[in-house]
Amino acid sequence: MSDVVEELKAKLAEKKDRLEAIRVEQAALEEEVIAFETVIACYDPSIRPSGTASFRRPVSTGGLTPTKRVTALLKGRNSRHIVLEILRWAERPVAAAEIAQSFVDKEQLADRAAGLSSHITSRFATVLNGLREQGLVRFEPSEDGNSRRLWEIAR
User: Fold this and answer.
1) Which domain of life is it from (predicted)?
2) Residues 6+ apart with CB under 8 A from 141
């Protein structure tokens, strides 16, 4: 049992390291995009910035942690019902990240949810695991062989 836990911890550490590397690469690419758009705008004033996150005015978080911001987004909403409703209407098994994005889109929370994608996904993944323990949903591994789970209503 402890071998399994240690393997899971090692896999989690790998995933976190990979995610951090992706964030660093994304930040570098966003800076490059800004540089290109700035130079192009000097030569062609009709060019407007693309509206990438770097050009948008930062949304004030009021000093709240991401976890507290997600809690505030979900305040007055039933996470279990949100997840079950999205799964009910899905035409195929979906990942927790897709459920999170569907929620943000449906509730029109893109501005308030900026930078919280992974945190919202994590919250819904926790809800999904609880629903699985109750026998309400089930998952299957994704077809591409990665460790992502695809969820659906247990029928």
Assistant:
1) Bacteria
2) 147, 148, 149, 150
What is the C-alpha separation between 129 and 8, in angstroms, rounded? 16
* Contacts of residue 125, Cβ cutoff 8 Å, sequence gap at least 6: 96
The pTM (predicted TM-score) of the whole model is: 0.56
Q: Does domain 61-155 have CATH number 3.50.30.10?
A: no
Residue 39 phi/psi, 5-degree rounding, is -65, -45
Radius of gyration of the chain (CA): 19
Residue pLDDT, tens place only, 1-59 = 778 888 888 888 888 888 888 887 888 888 888 888 888 888 877 777 665 444 444 44
Is-contact 54 34, C-beta < 8 A? Answer: yes
User: What residue spans define the domains of the chain?
Assistant: 1-56, 61-155
